[in-house]
Amino acid sequence: MEPRVYEVPVERVREVFGRIEEYDLLSVDVENEASVIDDMLGSEEGKLRYVREKLDDGNIDSAVLVVRDGTGTLVVKMENVITIRATVRNYERLIEEFGLKER
């Protein structure tokens, strides 16, 4: 199955992450090239808390939802140094509620 990619308006990313658990969150990963703190985060709750702090502090460059193999992965790029990936099971609801359009 070919992946489908949906544009996520950057102004809606904080709102999505404020409710991300509602979409059956499977995992959260964050890479911050300017920090080693993200490598020390062990729990999903800790990672999500860290992601929300970073979203509040920084500028979001781009965001897409990649749908493949029964899951959706929200990929957010911030300030060319932070990459956030959140994988959800209920991606159809996320697409519907936020009116996402396929690329």
From TrEMBL:
<protein>
    <submittedName>
        <fullName>Uncharacterized protein</fullName>
    </submittedName>
</protein>
